[in-house]
Amino acid sequence: MIKGEFMNESMLGKVAVVTGAGGGIGRDIALQLAQAGARVVVNDIGVSLSGEGSDAGPAAAVVAEIRTAGGEAAVNTDSIATREGAQRLIQQAVDSFGRIDCVVNNAGILRDRYFHKMSEEEWDAVMKVHLYGSFYTSRAAAGLFKEQGGGSFVHMTSTSGLVGNRAQANYAAAKMGIVGLSRTIAIDMQRSGVRSNCIAPFAWGRMVASVPITTDAQRLAAQRKQQLMTSAKVAPLAVFLASDLAADVNGQVFAVRGNEIMLMSQPRPVKSVHQSEGWTVQSIAEHALPAVRSALTPLEETADVFNWPPV
Fold first, then answer.
1. Quick one: which of 87, 111, 272, 303 has the fewest CB in 10 Å?
2. pTM to 2 decimals?
3. How far is CA 229 from CA 25, 29, 36, 205, in A?
4. What is the pLDDT of residues 22-32, one digit of tens each?
5. Which numeric CATH code is attached to 15-263?
6. Long-range contacts of 111-120 (CB under 8 A, 24+ apart)
7. Share of the chain above pLDDT 70, in %
8. 260 pairs with which residues across the strands?
9. What sign for the dihedral angle of Cα 218, 221, 226, 227?
């Protein structure tokens, strides 16, 4: 176990897998899981934001940090965008540490493009890492969780899907798919003591830093976000959800923005209208739409909804 000022034992005796843990949010989650007593498999294939290249160095560096501090960790460089890679990753956790208790699905890439210009390759690449990757790793661990009567999934979603951002149809679709995946895992596996939750992180990392800055106002805002919205701020919630302290938290979506933790809403009926004789196109236009118009969701982006400075 890592010894230090902020040591806790919420993950003592547990084994965790963190994908995309060579840097950014994944790295901080891996470090804080180890600090909480977990043995950690650090997965990262060391690619660029666009998914190019391969380098075992980032994952190895995180493992070295954990070991230097007195923790236990192992390097994994398999691609979770394939079923075989995800299966090898989960099997390595069992082979290295004898069990698995938590999977943090954090790995991701970006291929931003306005929808009308997006290629099939750009769509597929993002889907395979984010959505398929979350499915493959979760599915590979699910049987083990069921056998041992417990386990926790922590998935990374995004306000890009929950709210909306331009030029990210692939990313938004994948991230909303992860919300549905997580919710259904929670429902399907609750009787086996398995939990599944999502985090939408606001953190200054490679992905956020890659967004173009064109004005002084954007530059000042970016500097403030870089100072306050660090990846280390996201990690405590991930460790909490991974641990038994969150035994009664299942199927939820949270957001972390600086020092704020938010519970996000999930789709439920807002308003309904009824007409005993049924509806026609004309009656919908004349009666149904006016009745619900005030509750229509504005066409906003993430920055419009989260329009206060991070704290």
1. 272
2. 0.91
3. 11, 15, 22, 9
4. 999 999 999 99
5. 3.40.50.720
6. 111/50, 111/51, 111/170, 111/171, 112/167, 112/168, 112/171, 113/167, 113/170, 114/166, 114/167, 115/167, 115/169, 118/169, 118/170
7. 90
8. 257
9. positive
Residue bearing tokens 């419009």: 304
Dihedral pair phi/psi, residue 160, rounded to 5°: -60, -35
Q: Which residue has the tokens 């798919």?
A: 177
114 a catalytic residue: no
Q: Report the Cα–Cα distance between both ends of the chain, in Å, rounded.
A: 32
CA distance 278 to 177: 33
Q: Which two tokens stand for residue 274?
A: 């009824």
> Which letter, b or e, does each residue of 116-138 get, where b requires 16 or more Cβ atoms within 10 Å of its Cβ?
eebeeebbebbbbbbbbbbbbbb
> What single letter denotes the amino acid at residue 178?
I
CB 147: neighbour CB atoms within 10 A? Answer: 10
Q: Which amino acid is at 47?
A: V
Q: Is 297 helix (H, G, I), strand (E, B) or coil?
A: coil
Q: How many CB atoms within 10 Å of residue 177? A: 18
> What does the block give as tokens for 173?
């679709």
> For residue 243, what are its two tokens?
């641990």
List, for residues 242-252, the tens digit of each pLDDT value: 999 999 999 99
Query: CA–CA separation, 81 vs 305, rounded Å?
Result: 32
Sequence ranges of the domains in the chain = 15-263
Q: What's the Rg (C-alpha) of the chain?
A: 21
Which member of 114, 132, 136, 171 is catalytic?
171
